Amino acid sequence: MPENAAGREIPRTIHGLQAVKPFEGSFVNTPLVRIQKGSRTLPRLNKLVESIEQAILKSELKDGMTVSFHHHLRNGDMVLNMVMDVIANLGIKNLTIASSSLTSAHEPLIRHIRHGVVTRLVTSGLRDKLAEEISHGLLDIPVLFHSHGGRARMIESGEMKIDIAFLGVPSCDVYGNANGYSGPSACGSLGYAMVDAVHASKVVLITDNLVEYPNTPFSILQDQVDYIVQVDQIGDPEGISAGALRMTRNPRDILIAQYATHVIEHSGYMEDGFSLQTGSGSISLAVTNFLRDVMLRKNFRASFALGGITGNIVGLHEEGLIKRLLDVQSFDKEAIRSIAENRFHTEIDASYYANPHNKGCATNKINVVILSAMEIDTDFNVNVLTGSDGIIRGASGGHSDTAIGSGISVIVAPLFRGRTATVVDRVQTIITPGDTVDVLVTDHGVAVNPKRQDISERLKTKHLPIYTIEQLQEKAEKITGRPEPVQFEKRIVGVVEYRDGTILDVIHQVKD
Amino acid sequence: MLYVPGNNPNMVKDAHIYRSDSVMFDLEDSVSVQEKDAARFLIFRALKSIDYENTETVVRINGLNTPFGVDDVKAMVRARPDVIRLPKTETPDDIKAVDKLISEVEKAAGIEEGSIKLFAAIENAKGVVHAYQIALSSPRLVGIAFGAEDFVTNLNTQRSKGGLELFTARQEILMASRAAGLHAIDTVFSDVNDDEGFRREVELIKSMGFDGKSVINPRQVSMVHEIYTPTMEQINSARKILRAIEQAESEGSGVASVNGKMIDKPIVERARRTLELAHLSGIYLDEMEEEEFNA
């Protein structure tokens, strides 16, 4: 009978055990401890590596792999560019970048794409120069656009395998407990990054704020993390979050917000204990303020607010009008302050938020959502990704996730932007299918989706300027005229994946 | 009455969406001399091609004593706004001159004579002194507007929060309008960020008897409507009064009373006016109907 490393005789088979694996020594099968060569001063153990380069080498990044990032640092993000520069210097090529979204901070990717370092993008959105270049055919392989819920689904289902997640974190200890609440680059919730931390093969945290162990509360857990790199700065605070967002004084926005509030109040979905998601756009913020008046007048309290949380939602919570906040992304400094100190302001990950194929996502529980649109067509299909010139300049975000999940989805948009109509015959790109969009509110009037007769009935006597969406489209066209259709090449530069993984639309290269 | 600068296409294209009772396209003070032609052309095209739905359209022309006034009238009559507004009216002759010119253009353009109405804006002491004669000067006149900015300059003073310096002018204009059966519209409140001050002023002029207020920012429209909209209490009491009078009439009695108070003719008229305002403001319509339904 063989002896194990502790000198005990262990039979090769034991009744009731499928396999017998004899003890090989305390440190042999515990890799992190093995590094310390038998030292028992475990608290000193850490996962810090000297540089991003070390982290990349140790995680064995190879040509053709998929690396992921998050966009919680928004326009202030320095992490993606920092990591990609090192990867490019190491001569690694042909990578897929799966970032929860890409912002105006990520223009340097253009260079990495030209040099073959990056050959594929999977993202919620694209902005500015990078988006323009992609629209003109920079990448051979089309960009895959997903919703926030769709991304969580494709990661959790294994449909997209992340080899290495490089996650910027505003605070972190030596063992990998990280959160977004504190430090000079605080961004609040790390909801999108949390999914990557669970499912990526390797997880590298990059921080500018190394704190004492244990860094509680934590959003990313020590048991998920392989390596940690300390750098001078992960983000520019100016770009990470806005200061207090002021109530708009634009009369057009206020008018739309007043109509939207009236619609929501009488829709049948606003009652004591209702739930809501509002965005960070100026109309959305104004609606939130007006809903506050309705709640006070009717003595309603909301059970929760979901989504990107803003300072004015936090204000309503602190006033006692919204009982709980579920936060996948904190939009401004107030939201960041609140999530750090208030246990009723709960951080949630992107799967909890909106994954359509898990056992229950929060978007299914909202009564009222207010959404924007670049374009909406007479079938109520919404485009929030491509401009009227066919160029990509937006993000899918949680638009389709919340539209289908909510009791009533309300699109707020002016009928015109400059000389361009918002309500059109056919949107350039479908991000949210029309059968999940319930009401359109513009400055010229309100249109209810004919599929929602219940809402139509309730709004009928409420003194709102109600039209059919075709009438709104005609009103717009009367003033703008019918624009020449945008000219596209045959080649596809983007693919829009619906939250369930099916392909909803494609984006063609624009003609020069 | 919502002011819309005549050289701002973005506002001109859909000025009616704020649901003011009227929109006033301005060719006068908000348009610089270099842009007079462009603004006139823009407003002409807008009135010809845009459906402003139920909103009354008003154009403030330049005075006939300026190089632009005559051209303004010639173009605007053909564009057919509901009303032409003459600024800085000082005497009945000012109105008569415009009236005559409008008639000529109407005739030349084959438009029914008298179809374009007139609004006189009184903006200085001379105009205030002549208010009643001005009010009687033309059958086209539908109302008088007070313009306080030029008025206070003319009086060597400035506008105060309480508005004491405007008191007499407001009263004179109101008296003249009522005596001649015209509408009286109060001046603008120019600090668009002072919502509280605006509210106080609208409450003041409403209690004085003005029919409405000129506003320079669309945001102010809903505040005016809110203040001019009767409260539910006022509406209910008005309805009670009208019901009581109906009942009294059907019973052949000329005398009715509500809560022990005699109802006479002025009270009935006020009640009718309250319900008319409620009807116009729409907001209470459904609730009234609902109540009717439930009763």
What report would you give on this structure?
The complex is a heterodimer of chains A (512) and B (295). Chain A has 512 residues and is α/β, with parallel strands linked by helices. Chain A has two domains: 193 residues, Glutaconate Coenzyme A-transferase, CATH 3.40.1080; 235 residues, 3-Layer(aba) Sandwich (Glutaconate Coenzyme A-transferase). Chain A is built from 16 helices and 28 strands. In chain A, the strands form six sheets. A ten-stranded mixed sheet of chain A has the order 1-11-10-7-2-3-4-6-27-28, with helices on both faces. Chain A has a nine-stranded mixed sheet with strand order 15-14-13-12-16-20-24-25-26, with helices on both faces. In chain A, helix 6 runs parallel beside helix 7. Chain B is an alpha/beta fold. Chain B folds into two domains: 227 residues, TIM Barrel (Alpha-Beta Barrel); 63 residues, no CATH class. Chain B contains 13 helices and ten strands. Chain B has an eight-stranded parallel sheet with strand order 1-2-3-4-5-6-7-8. The C terminus of chain B is likely disordered. The interface between A and B is medium-sized, with 15 and 18 residues.
